[in-house]
């Protein structure tokens, strides 16, 4: 029980010291870490949004430049004259027109797939890809939109199962000298150019764990800096009619719903709210790490660019600070623990001494007294204990003396009664009783009064008196055998 109390007292002191020392540190560290995390998140979000906006501007510039280029190229005199000419005249102009298209095609041999001239009835009359000459394109959106609006047009990204390529068409109406539309000039561009733009902006950002994704209006990936395997896959499974329509148009990967999509509803929700909240957190494909994302829309197309970065990368300073704080906290804890043990020993020692003295006192050692070594509360407690112990010791001694007195009185009474009953020498008995009481209690004067039945009075007996005592006077009955008075003067 003593060991348990000692341990409990020291534990309380140690916990108190550690709490006073470490609790403020923990609170300040938590507040600082939270503020730092919010600052890093804000900075990272702004950086992601700036990079996403820069990427969107690059893609907008790419689309705008190609639209402007095809608009200018559609007004080349030889192109306009070729489509305005009759069938017979076109034969004479064909070689020169083909040379113009081939020259345009050589502007970017890496990305340009073909240039086409299409008549008003949608028939391809010239194409740098000779296999497409004579094909009917009257139902293609890049033909109809250019004819109907009279403005340059850019098509969605489409996948061609025939050529196993993804491409995007830029088209512009061709006009004659009177401003009349005579046909359409179409430029087929490899959509890998979009992927290269995405990769270039990712490299500019300078983070290996950051990347951009380009989405169309149906949230189908058109370019992906994380994994090209997900291109032409939707973020979440689309309704069957919508999926089949997009697959028929070549705008979605062929196959079942699982093959043509991923299952990232959190990502989808973030994309849908980009107009009001461009920042969100999400998971990407097979990655189980939470990512921070910022999204923005393009100006030229109903597309959106999302720039994504791992939270762990820009929150790395917080982890470093956490480990520093942890090390500092451990060092402080060890120092405080050493001080707490020493202080606990110093503060608990008087109490332990007092506990030991009280244990000895309660075990029966009434002489045990505490050592008063200080004037503080512990010293006052020890002094109070000593005072209490002194009073208790005196009380016990008084009770012991009173007990001895009662025992002697009882012994004398019993002796007198027995002697009177047996008619022995009453004087000797009374003298012995008086002598015994004087010796035991240090009395100067002792008198015994005997009851006289005849006179119904008490008669005093003194050791000095020579008057004999009538034995009948000390015949004791059971009710009142005698009266005894002892005087200590």
Tell me about this structure:
It is a single chain. This protein has 489 residues and is α+β, with helices and mostly antiparallel strands. It folds into three domains: 32-56 and 194-316, PAS domain (Beta-Lactamase, 2-Layer Sandwich); 66-189, PAS domain (Beta-Lactamase); 387-487, no CATH class. 51% of the residues lie in helices and 17% in strands. The chain contains eleven helices and 14 strands. It has helices at 2-73, 77-84, 87-105, 141-149, 192-205, 240-248, 265-272, 311-314, 316-362, 377-421, 426-441, and strands spanning 112-119, 124-127, 153-154, 158-160, 165-175, 181-190, 210-215, 221-224, 279-282, 291-297, 304-310, 445-452, 457-461, 483-487. Strands 1, 2, 3, 4, 5 and 6 form a six-stranded antiparallel beta sheet that branches. A five-stranded antiparallel beta sheet has the order 8-7-11-10-9, with helices on both faces. The protein has a three-stranded antiparallel beta sheet with strand order 13-12-14, covered by helices on one side. Helix 1 (2-73) packs across helix 5 (192-205) and helix 9 (316-362) runs parallel beside helix 10 (377-421). It is rod-shaped, with a radius of gyration of 58 Å. It starts with a helix and ends with a strand. The relative contact order is 0.09. The model is unreliable at 1-6 and 466-489 (pLDDT under 50).
């Amino acid at each position: 029980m003593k060991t348990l109390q000692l341990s409990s007292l020291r534990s309380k002191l140690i916990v108190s010291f550690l709490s006073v020392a470490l609790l403020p540190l923990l609170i300040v560290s938590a507040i600082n870490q939270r503020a730092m995390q919010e600052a890093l998140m804000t900075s990272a979000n702004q950086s992601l949004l700036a990079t996403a906006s820069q990427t969107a501007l690059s893609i907008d510039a790419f689309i705008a430049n190609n639209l402007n280029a095809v608009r200018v190229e559609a007004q080349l005199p030889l192109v306009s004259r070729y489509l305005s000419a009759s069938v017979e005249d076109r034969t004479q102009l064909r070689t020169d027109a083909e040379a113009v298209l081939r020259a345009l095609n050589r502007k970017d041999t890496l990305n340009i797939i073909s240039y086409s001239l299409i008549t008003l009835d949608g028939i391809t009359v010239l194409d740098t890809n000779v296999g497409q000459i004579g094909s009917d394109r009257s139902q293609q959106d890049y033909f109809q939109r250019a004819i109907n609006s009279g403005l340059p047009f850019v098509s969605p990204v489409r996948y061609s199962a025939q050529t196993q390529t993804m491409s995007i068409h830029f088209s512009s109406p061709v006009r004659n000298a009177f401003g009349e539309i005579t046909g359409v000039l179409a430029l087929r561009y490899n959509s890998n150019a979009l992927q290269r733009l995405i990769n270039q902006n990712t490299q500019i950002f300078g983070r290996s764990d950051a990347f951009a994704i380009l989405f169309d209006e149906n949230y189908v990936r058109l370019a992906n800096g994380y994994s090209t395997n997900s291109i032409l896959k939707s973020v979440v499974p689309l309704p069957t009619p919508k999926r089949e329509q997009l697959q028929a148009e070549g705008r979605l990967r062929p196959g079942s719903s699982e093959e043509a999509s991923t299952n990232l509803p959190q990502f989808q929700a973030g994309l849908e709210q980009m107009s009001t909240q461009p920042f969100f957190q999400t998971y990407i494909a097979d990655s189980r790490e939470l990512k921070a994302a910022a999204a923005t829309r393009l100006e030229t197309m109903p597309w959106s660019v999302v720039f994504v970065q791992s939270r762990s990368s820009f929150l790395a300073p917080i982890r470093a600070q956490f480990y520093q704080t942890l090390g500092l906290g451990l060092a402080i804890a060890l120092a405080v623990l050493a001080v707490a043990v020493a202080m606990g020993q110093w503060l608990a020692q008087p109490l332990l001494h007092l506990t030991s003295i009280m244990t000895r006192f309660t075990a029966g050692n009434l002489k045990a007294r505490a050592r008063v070594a200080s004037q503080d509360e512990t010293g006052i407690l020890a002094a109070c204990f000593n005072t209490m112990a002194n009073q208790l010791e005196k009380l016990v001694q008084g009770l012991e003396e009173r007990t001895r007195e009662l025992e002697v009185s009882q012994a004398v009474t019993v002796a007198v009664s027995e002697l009177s009953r047996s008619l022995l020498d009453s004087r000797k008995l009374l003298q012995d009783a008086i002598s015994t009481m004087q010796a035991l209690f240090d009395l100067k004067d002792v008198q015994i009064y005997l009851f006289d039945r005849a006179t119904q009075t008490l008669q005093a007996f003194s050791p000095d008196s020579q008057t004999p005592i009538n034995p009948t006077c000390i015949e004791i009955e059971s009710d009142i055998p005698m009266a005894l008075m002892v005087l200590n003067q």
